[in-house]
Amino acid sequence: MENVCALAGASNQGSSTIASDTPQEPFTSKKRQMCELCGRPRNICLCDTIAPLPSVPRFGILTHPREARKVQNTGRLAHLCLTNSVYCEGVDFTEDATVNEVLADPRLVSYILYPDENAMDLSIMSSTEIWEVFGERAMFWVVDGTWNNAGKMIRESNNLKDLPKVAFSPPQQSRFAIRKQPKEFCYSSIESIAYIIDRFSCRNGLVTTDSSKQADLLMRVFMRMVDMQIECEENRRLSHQSSVSTNHIEYDTPDV
Ligand SMILES: [Zn+2]
């Protein structure tokens, strides 16, 4: 879920606390031009920030339809950044051909990023352990939705619900400043994926340049998105203030 799956030991609680499902930029119009690639309005398109790369490990992003419609959806952005990732929208993936094809690929071993009592905690594993346990064949499925939706998606997907689960404790608060998080240390999907790639970036004591680049790319795209959103919020606030001020002057002008 946007935010949910990454957390070790977090409980499935409450409904979405997403601040808004709608774009926040101040210059919205009903005829907004949308970028077909990143799915964002053209005035806040992020495609020029994206320089796609393949990743180790690989990722499958399972996005709830409601999440897919949000301008701030980071699962789609992560998919655009990672050329060997898989992106699927839906709720029940039991019959999803793409998901089943990946699950059946003998070159890959699937795990699902979701916190429960049996989840393996990536944050307490050393780099050596991570490579020993998961290795190059690891395929992580990231559920992109709210807490409630993610739990439902996993429960209803017979092909996913019994996959081994992994989780982690985010080392710092999410930088997803524009959305309220269900818990203080929830991460967005793109932050979660960047974190996992970063945990794989050290192998046999050596930091791999490729993994560092991938994690950096994801966070660069993410922070660009956050900056754009903050800028839009600020413009909207100033626009609102200006409007209030104008109204106030008109109100105070005595009738003649
Ligand atoms: Zn775009």
From TrEMBL:
The enzyme's E.C. designation: 2.5.1.25
A family per Pfam: DTW
Plastid found in the keyword field: no
Top-level EC class as recorded in UniProt: transferase
Cited InterPro entries: DTW, DTWD2/TAPT
Reaction catalysed by this enzyme: a uridine in tRNA + S-adenosyl-L-methionine = a 3-[(3S)-3-amino-3-carboxypropyl]uridine in tRNA + S-methyl-5'-thioadenosine + H(+)
Parts forming coiled coils: none
All copies of domain DTW, residue ranges: 31-234
SMART domains, sorted: DTW
Any GO molecular function: tRNA-uridine aminocarboxypropyltransferase activity
UniProt record, GO biological process: tRNA processing
Keyword vocabulary terms for this entry: S-adenosyl-L-methionine, Transferase, tRNA processing
The family this protein is said to belong to: Belongs to the TDD superfamily. DTWD2 family.
Name of the featured protein: tRNA-uridine aminocarboxypropyltransferase
